[in-house]
Amino acid sequence: METLSFALSVTGPIFLTLIIGYWLAGIGLLRESFVDDASRLVFLVTLPVLLFIKIFTADAELGQQLPLLAAGFLGTLVTIPLAWGAARPLATGDRSAFIQGAFRGNLGIIGLAWAANAYGSSGLAQAALVMAVVTILYNLTAVALFAVYSQKVKFSWGRLGRDIAQNPLIIAIVLALLGRQFGLRLPDILLQTGNYLASVTLPLALLCIGASLDLSLLRRSSLTAFGAVAFKLLAVPVVLLAFGWLFGLDAQSMGVLLLLAAAPSATVSFIMARAMGGNSQLAANIVALSTLFSIVTASLGLALLEVIYR
Q1: Domains (ranges, CATH) in the chain?
Q2: DSSP string of the chain, one letter each residue
Q3: What is the pLDDT of residues 97-156, one digit of tens each?
Q4: Which positions, given as ranges, span the membrane (predicted)?
Q5: What is the pTM of this model?
């Protein structure tokens, strides 16, 4: 009971913040224009600052996190072709939405928020590093999906390189690592200012995600959507945790890996489906369903890990 209480203390506040965002949007207090502007602010400014500050000031060295990074990278590398194979029986127009929803998680907000709730700054720093590695894989897969399924746009490897090089989250993580490597010292006033900006990131982002949810989509969800959600919330965590076990990760690292793996499908999968001319309705259903059910699966998974590593 104690372990389940701990798990709910990690996921529960995130879920309630999403519901508050959904409610505020319903009563007109969070308008679409505000959500759009706030989401851009988070992506371009406050989230990069958060990642930079937490990695730059973390106690652990990068070398100590290599087993965790390897588990995250290899686990994700395995889940991508598995998701691709699971989509083979579907209609062509549904495949891109299924694949994106099945393996691509909302690491930047939900995953980071869970890791921070569970393990504080050290867990957040670990999650940020894993996110950087996995995000590159996500982008590579996005290019492959465009090449195979897009009916509108074709992406090039050059475009991929530019996207990665210009991604503010990856830039922030690389700068933080370089700063640590070269022993850079930042004035306290800059660190304090960075902490002020960082502190608004997760609550604001969660409110925006909640405001963007359309729970009416749940009534129109199909078996295909449930299949993608089951893959994302059950198969992906099992695969990544298997690699974590192979690399002998400690309890906290396994917990961080689980929380990232169990994060719901990323909202960008809906954008990708629309850009490729795929089934954007299916993609939206997968995002909504996975956001709802991830609270249950992540809580149970974290409670189980607590029992195993106790």
Answers
A1: 2-308 (1.20.1530.20)
A2: -HHHHHHHHHHHHHHHHHHHHHHHHHTTSS-HHHHHHHHHHIIIIIHHHHHHHHHHT-SS-GGGGHHHHHHHHHHHHHHHHHHHHHTTTS-HHHHHHHHHHHH-B-IIIIIHHHHHHHHHHHHHHHHHHHHHHHHHHHHHHHHHHHHHH-SS----HHHHHHHHHH-HHHHHHHHHHHHHHTT----HHHHHHHHHHHHTHHHHHHHHHHHH--GGGGGG--HHHHHHHHIIIIIHHHHHHHHHHHTT--HHHHHHHHHHHTSPBPTHHHHHHHHTTS-HHHHHHHHHHHHHHHHHHHHHHHHHHHHHT-
A3: 888 889 888 888 888 889 988 998 889 889 888 988 888 788 778 767 766 666 555 556
A4: 6-29, 41-60, 66-85, 97-116, 128-148, 168-184, 196-217, 229-248, 254-273, 285-309
A5: 0.85
